[in-house]
Write a structure and sequence with these properties.
The protein has 2 helices and 5 strands. By secondary structure, the chain is of the alpha+beta class. Strands 3-4-2-1-5 form a 5-stranded mixed sheet, covered by helices on one side. Strand 3 and strand 4 form a beta hairpin. It is globular.
Length: 93
């Protein structure tokens, strides 16, 4: 049985939040201790579809609905991010 406390088996944390200060109407994704991989925003946008805007800001990704700014769809957005983030991360909500 694998020991989840071994450093090589622990995953880095990824945080996805909606409505943070200065980002009240959008989701913001942060990857702990890392810059955003160059293709991550593109992968998320492909999964979400054309009605969502996904912006790579270097240290975070901002996600918002293009037509209904401030729209929340946690199931869709969290699902897309979980599919797209590299395996070395665990998504925390």
């Amino acid at each position: 049985m694998e020991d989840p406390n071994k450093p090589e088996q622990r995953k880095k944390k990824a945080y996805l939040n909606f409505g943070q200060p200065s980002h009240e109407d959008e989701y913001v994704l942060h990857l702990a201790d890392d810059d955003i991989p160059f293709d991550l925003a593109e992968k998320i946008e492909e999964i979400l579809g054309k009605n969502w805007e996904v912006l790579d800001r270097g240290t975070r990704i901002e996600i918002c609905h293009k037509r209904k700014f401030g729209l929340r769809d946690d199931k869709k957005v969290f699902g897309a991010v979980e599919q797209a983030i590299p395996d070395k991360y665990k998504l925390h909500k």
